């Protein structure tokens, strides 16, 4: 464990608390893409099957459990509790375009052709693009509630902080994980536009609005 | 080379 990964994990944790807080405070999941949330739930379930057979640490165990449980809880909130506030007509990104390529890439580029390794690799590829439906929705509406932008910023910062973590691990442990690094670069890259608006506008007290 | 210790990452 190093400081970058710890802060990254904490940002990830924070993003989930902010999202749940947003839904409960505004009693609405307006502006949140159900598709993106469903993809994250799938990412966690496919990546963390190693919980069943591979013990790493208490920290690792608790975090994995939390991410799986909280992502399912968010799906429950969106699909049942606050269902009327979710508008599927603006959440229209076709997730087949993300699921298909992630699956085929994981069959080709993996560390070992086994079920659990392919699931792990699939989850890495899928996570890197799972934010697409959410960003697409943002693009369509052209604006977002401030609290939603805090959620997205924390989520983006999480994967961005994994980049110095990998550099640190390369230097100190000689560890290179090309699959995670490539996907992490893609994932962080997708946030660059958003980060620009967030850091130049939202953090200066302005509303998140995209230029028309 | 398979970076096995990658599984400690979330």
TrEMBL record, chain A:
Output the PROSITE patterns linked to this UniProt entry.
Answer: ER_LUMEN_RECEPTOR_1
Instruction: Tell me a Gene Ontology molecular-function term this record carries.
Output: ER retention sequence binding
| UniProt keyword annotations, A-Z | Endoplasmic reticulum, ER-Golgi transport, Membrane, Protein transport, Receptor, Transmembrane, Transmembrane helix, Transport
Q: One GO term of the cellular component aspect?
A: endoplasmic reticulum membrane
Record-annotated membrane-spanning stretches: 52-76, 97-113, 179-199
Gene Ontology biological process: protein retention in ER lumen; protein transport; vesicle-mediated transport
Q: Which compartments is it annotated to reside in?
A: Endoplasmic reticulum membrane
Classification via InterPro entries:
ER_ret_rcpt
- Main localization (coarse): endoplasmic reticulum
* Superkingdom of source: Eukaryota
Pfam families for the chain: ER_lumen_recept
Q: RNA-binding as a keyword?
A: no
Give the way it sits in the membrane.
Multi-pass membrane protein
The UniProt entry, under PANTHER family, shows:
ER LUMEN PROTEIN RETAINING RECEPTOR (PTHR10585)
Give the family this protein belongs to, as stated in its UniProt record: Belongs to the ERD2 family.
By what name is this protein known? ER lumen protein-retaining receptor
